[in-house]
Amino acid sequence: MIGHEVKKYENIRISIDKTTRLSTTLDIEAVEGQEVVVRATRPLIDFDKTNSEAIVTSEELEIMPIEDVADVIKLQGGVTQDAGGGIHIRGGRSSEVAYLVDGVSITDAYDGAIAVNIENANIQELQVISGTFNAEYGKAMSGIVNIVTKDGSDKFESYLQVYSGDHQSDDNIYKNLDSYTLTNDKNITLNLSGPIIKKKLNFFISARSYASDGWLNGLQTFTMYGDTVHTDKNLNGYFDSTDVKKEPYYRAMNWRDKYSVQTKLTYKINPKLVLRLNSIISDEQWQNYNHYSQMAQEGQKINYAVGSFTGLKLSQSFSSKTFYDININQSVHEYNAYLYKEYLDPRYITPDHLFWRNVSGAITPEISQQYGTGINFFPQYTFSRWGVATDRFFRNTTTNSLKWDLTSQVNKYNQIKLGFEFQKHLLKQDGYALLDSSQSDQIFTPYVPDRDSFNRTTYEYDPFEGSFYIQDKIEYGDMIINAGIRYEYFDPRSSVPNNIHEPYIKNPRNPALDSLSTQEKETIDWGSVMYTIEDSLGNPVAYTYADYYQSFGNQQDLYQKTGWWKKTTVKSQLSPRLGIAYPISDRGVVHFSYGYFFKIPDFSLLYNNTEIKLTDAGTDFGIFGNPDLKPERSVSYEIGLQQEILPSLKLDLRAYYKDSRDYVSSGIPIDLGDGKSYFTFVNKDYSNTRGIIITLDRFYQNGFGWHIDYTYQKAEGSNSDPSEEFGAVVSGQEPTRSIIPLDWDQNNNLNGSFFFDYKGWVTSLLFQYGSGYPYTPVITNYEGQGGQLANVLIKNSRRKLYTYNFDLKISRSIRINKFNGKVFININNLLDTRNEISVYGDTGRANRTIEQIRANSISPYEPMRPHSLDDYFSRPDWYSEPRSIQLGMELRW
């Protein structure tokens, strides 16, 4: 008998949102012919790609010298990083990125950050979509980061990674980094995977522990109470004659510890029905560097972040062409910051009379005998000699969601995808500074201010979000069209003042309101009569509550309003999305994409201190949250070309433009009368981004591969930060009146990655170059008597120096009995480059300022200054991270 031969495909990679084509011919042969095995290779050109995306596999993550997801994102074209470490995709603000795990959101709606850490060892595939994206993705305006986690395998597998190391630099700007200690940075990762019930139930478990002392150290000279560091023999909390002084010692000031655990169960109920249960928990603790407290770091607060994700996913196939996914998830992100967990912790209590004498500036007899009575106890340009952080902050974001997606290949031309998602958030926040319960003694005895106190901000809100989308992937001949529309809905479930000139219900400005109860004020009819007086003719004249505010001249409708509060409005938008890919040959394809994008502002801008607490003291109050903010909106365009130049070399060209409106900013001052005003957030900022990206990819082949991308981009707008205009107003400066470069506007960016594999030796080299970010210049004039005048020039009108960096990882394959593995060395910042991240405004450099010349002229030597002026003006935190070297080993069995 004669028939077609049998071909079997192996190593086929299925990627997110991609159609995998298998092209071959079947030869006619006798039926008893042998099976032909075809091993699939990754295609050079993605003919169905209609937007910009990068896909990084688990194998690539393993050989790259990177630590977490953020390191991967920063390597993509069009991505920049601000001085605070925030990631900006295509010129957008850092909160415009949506983070997904296995297709569902893990974004913390409070600030747009990722709610739970996903470790590299848990990632099967990482997809970064920049600029435009299909209708299935929402709540983002710049990019999507979609993380696919690993499933359990059909056989037992284990993976162990251990490494340790340290930062090392010969630069004197870094204290205590001139030697190398192998145990300053420590990491251990363990993965276990396998079947629980063969061919039915598999598991995947991963755990990681990481601890780092960081690279910024301070010479601890004083305790947080102001005493010289000592051994407290009698445990009374301060130095006395029975104690022994200690030598100052170096203390880590930007240390970080983190732990994470992921557990994933995959249950194949039948060939068409799969159930997945995924649980991820991360716990992180760290301390931020405080330059001015580096001699008394002990009293600085510690940051705590705990994130968790629990997801249940049911996938069912109705046929070979139609399937659906239903996800039920909960993500929790809790962030706290405090020195000690319990506010009654005895270490908050300051018992030392010396501390209180120091605070008052009184000179002790010992000091006056040594230096004279004219000594300056508080000289300028001096680090803090004491300090107990009494501010405390607690917040929690819990998001429960239901998501359903259906995909159907209705015919050979159309793949329909539709779905909906509902999210219910619960936000809690409590922030305050401990107060002294008694001002009559010399002991600080802490107490927590009342919830209604001006010194405390606390709230609880439960906003609701919903969305629906439908899209069609049309494959007509060689042309691909992704067309869709997305509807998004948001209910802030809050309220705002009906009378903007009378916002604080517990301390009204109108004296006539003082006699009303809180309930009466909540239901007030502003047009009703508040009192009646007689005019000069003896005729009664009635005055309403609204009359009191008519001098402001902007609330004529107040007479018709009822109630202190009005409910916030529901926000919604329809967002069309379109992407087209059309091949120009069998080795090249062009694409175009366009879309409207919609994002609710960070919840921190909506809900912070919405009670608008005002005191009788002060003149400018704010900035207060505004739960009735409109969504931020953008329109994005992109055109691109993929072209195969050689059998393993690809050229990718992309040009893009994004126009963003209704960005959140601080509004104009709202008059309260008597020279007082307050500020709230409003939608009024604007930005636009345009750029080109040129990419060359030499796919990994014969032990060698590389990737290079160059970006030219301009990101301009009215303000870089929502509170920026408020800061200008209260400091007496002119707010922005024109479009200027944004803080993260980096015009030229070059990224490169190179991979070599030779006889078990694997080398990975990453390179990054970026032109200078903008800064605002300041001209400082001073006189010998100490008079000073600072002139602030046009904002962001000058540029910092360019930056560059090399990272290197070298590994060697090993085998120990039944264990396969590798040993490796990982070197970040290989050349120990000193990149300037922040600078002095008068010089544009991090290492010098005219202010130091002034300091040397008016305060060259102060006996009570326990350090040099060079120490004071030397800012190691204004530079990028110095060289770090890690040695490690991986084992698999």
TrEMBL record:
GO biological process: siderophore transmembrane transport
Recorded GO CC terms: cell outer membrane
Xref: InterPro entries: Beta-barrel_TonB, Beta-barrel_TonB_sf, Plug_dom, Plug_dom_sf, TonB-dep_rcpt-like
Membrane topology listed for this record: Multi-pass membrane protein
Major localization listed first in the record, in broad terms: membrane
Domain TonB-dependent receptor plug span(s) in chain numbering: 49-143
The protein's name: TonB-dependent receptor plug domain-containing protein
Organism, as annotated: marine metagenome
